[in-house]
Specification:
Helix 2 (about 50-60) crosses helix 11. The chain has eleven helices and nine strands. The two termini are about 15 Å apart. By secondary structure, it is of the alpha/beta class. Bound molecules: phosphoric acid mono(formamide)ester. Phosphoric acid mono(formamide)ester binds near residues 50, 53, 123, 132 and 263.
Amino acid sequence: MKDLLGLEGFSANQILRFLDAAEELSALRSSPPQLLSGRFAALLFAEPSTRTLSSFWMAVQALGGQALPLALQGSSVLKGETLLDTCRNLQAVGFDLLIIRQGTAGALGPVAEALEASVVNAGDGQGEHPTQALLDLFTLRRHKGAVGPTPLEGLKVVLLGDIHHSRVARSNAWGLKALGARAVFCGPPDLVPRELARLGAEVTWDIAEALQDADAVNVLRLQRERHLENLAPSPRDYFAAYGLTRERLALAKPDCIVLHPGPLNREVEIASEVADGPRSVILEQVSNGVAVRMAVLSRLSQRHELAVS
Ligand code: CP
């Protein structure tokens, strides 16, 4: 495996190899294997990030590699250089891992194809965010998983919010389907068009129906910065119609867990008392993100080791 660009087309086995490796690395957190010793990772981010950037940085360092965080706005892309040329230059400098967040879905495919260096998608516009979905699946499996080849079989997992603009929803849908879960997309009709059912999820605009007997709810942010078509309702109207409140959460199973990839907007898509409440695993997701990203980087480094042996 050279690159990780998305989860579309991944089998349960492929996903479980990442999750199992993340469990092993999580257990070794105080003295992880130095699999990236002598390796250099460039963290190229064209959009803001707190969790993905910092946890990839932490994962590279923990595995003995060196990481350079580089805002694409602070790179020569601003002077007209293409993303591919920037990446070719970083490869020429000696970076063999390129972890990239940028605004256009699918733009990393040609970059990965043209390079020897490994490319990891850290979020591409409305495309995919594979490491976020892997850490969501990891967290779900820890709380709800059964032993076996499809550990989330039969679980009802609701993705609630702005699905249309969400790369997290897309990657989660592929991963949940592969692991046997029942994914349900819910939000206002403009942000959850029926055609999203092609991702393998059920679609409903009725929040009560969606939450009924849910095992987990993954709440997604209203991405106002991507609402070019003026689709977004006001934050107050959105919260009234689709915000996850304690009363609404009561419709789900008593042990239903609440996830959110962040950044979260309190009292817009989620009530503070739910975000900080006993069912919330939001900060656990963030911690799990380091082990999951270590697992991804380990797999890519194995590719390098195999290639030279
Ligand atoms: N979940 C996520 O991608 O968060 P950041 O934008 O902070 O990286």
